[in-house]
Design goal:
single chain; 160 residues; mainly alpha; 10 helices; globular
Length: 160
């Protein structure tokens, strides 16, 4: 895999981006389990990258991806999404997990955590405010999802 391909995968695929953060977290831990953990995470990343390259993806999924990332703070319903990408709501329901490798709710939480990363690194806003701005119900919901996706607690991530 070329360096350029890796950068593209990180930019386009939230799963790959979060896997990179988990690899970084493992490097910081540096215990007896670090090497096998990193190997597993790298293989997962290669698999995710390979799957996103080799899979024939319909145009509507790219439009849906852009829409969900642009309008992440809004409450979107299935009918509005279907209308915007010009497919039937059943098509999105049936194929979402196939093309996004997660449920709709999981994807939206990934997008929100991704949005929070720049706020954590580039501002001194309290985590409660960041959680609110990124659309989480409360700070504990935000912290739980951030830790699950990145391997870091938000306060520890801020200190990196």
């Amino acid at each position: 895999i070329s360096e350029q391909l890796l950068y593209q995968a990180i930019a386009k695929n939230l799963d790959v981006r979060f896997l990179m953060l988990k690899i970084h977290h493992e490097l910081l831990i540096n215990d007896n389990f670090t090497n096998p953990s990193i190997k597993i995470l790298l293989l997962s990343m290669l698999d995710a990258t390979k799957n996103s390259i080799n899979r024939k993806i319909p145009d509507w999924t790219n439009k849906l991806h852009e829409l969900l990332n642009d309008r992440w703070a809004e409450t979107l319903n299935l009918e509005d999404l279907a209308l915007a990408v010009k497919v039937h709501p059943v098509t999105i329901s049936k194929h979402f997990t196939k093309y996004f490798s997660c449920t709709f709710g999981e994807y939206m939480r990934k997008v929100k955590v991704n949005k929070s990363i720049s706020l954590i690194k580039n501002t001194k806003l309290p985590l409660t405010e960041i959680a609110f701005q990124c659309g989480f119900a409360d700070q504990s919901h935000f912290i739980r999802n951030f830790k699950k996706l990145t391997g870091f607690l938000p306060k520890d991530f801020r200190q990196l």
